[in-house]
Specification:
- By secondary structure, the protein is an alpha/beta fold.
- The chain has 10 helices and 5 strands; from the N terminus they run H-E-H-E-H-E-H-H-E-E-H-H-H-H-H.
- The chain has 2 domains: 139 residues, Resolvase, N-terminal catalytic domain (Rossmann fold), CATH 3.40.50; 70 residues, no CATH class.
- It starts with a helix and ends in a 13-residue tail after the last helix.
């Protein structure tokens, strides 16, 4: 152990940790990685922690920052708790390891006893094998999740977020009084897109006549003459009907 510690003494080391959801934390990973660095004589120069970011994403804020420091030569060794914390797909893992190898960077997955040091070719083989198993494991997880959703739907259960419960007629009433989309959204505590969708869904069956007035008829604002077809919410969001009538306030 002393020989290994002397061999690593002074090597600039970066610690990388990641959790997939915002309600998780990296305390366990970071504590073990710091202890490993101290035990083996590494000098930790920085820690890179991605909170609430999926490992399937090749671009992550802290991972990108770490890669920038690696390319600048500020880090010589990377410590990572487990392989799937760094990459969840085999292709991304191989690409990342190959880039590190070309730059002379060692990657150590501490809980799996894998070190990509050039003097340890067996570790590289194990790294690729473990990466393949990790990707396979994730594929099985996705498959089981989809099967569970399908089974739930067959039993009449609705998957996904619960529908927002609010009075769509109230959206139409406030809009007809001249309130802006954002003001209505704040008033009812719903997203802006939901506000627009609810308004046009409520009026879907109405026949819209050109020049028909909003509100009580005393306002100068008038509806746009769309014929028998109502504009979509996307039309409203992206402004494709913005010039149709100066009286339609977004």
């Amino acid at each position: 152990m002393q020989a290994t510690k002397n061999h690593n003494a002074g090597l600039r080391c970066g610690i990388y940790a990641r959790v997939s959801t915002a309600d998780q934390n990296c305390t366990l990973q970071l504590n073990e990685l710091r202890e490993f660095a101290t035990r083996n004589g590494f000098t930790v120069t920085d820690e890179f922690v991605d909170h609430g970011v999926s490992g399937t994403k090749a671009s992550r804020p802290e991972l990108n920052r770490m890669l920038a420091q690696v390319r600048e030569g500020r880090i010589r060794v990377i410590l990572c708790w487990k392989m799937d914390r760094l990459c969840r797909s085999l292709a991304h893992l191989v690409q990342t390891i190959q880039e590190f190898d070309a730059l002379g960077i060692r990657v150590i997955f501490t809980t799996q006893n894998i070190d990509t040091d050039k003097s340890n070719p067996l570790a590289k083989l194990l790294c690729h094998l473990m990466g393949a198993f990790s990707e396979f494991e994730r594929s099985l997880l996705v498959e089981r999740t989809l099967a569970g959703v399908k089974a739930a739907r067959a039993k009449g259960r609705v998957a996904g977020r619960p529908k927002r419960i609010f009075d769509r007629a109230e959206v139409a009433r406030l809009r007809d009084r001249g309130m802006s989309w954002r003001a209505i959204a704040r008033e009812l505590n719903i997203p802006l897109s939901t506000t627009v969708d609810a308004f046009y869904e409520y009026h879907r069956t109405e026949i819209v006549q050109p020049g028909a007035a909003f509100g009580d008829g005393n306002e100068s604002t008038s509806r746009v003459g769309f014929g028998s077809a109502m504009p979509s919410a996307d039309d409203v969001r992206y402004g494709s009907i913005a010039n149709a009538s100066a009286g339609v306030a977004q």
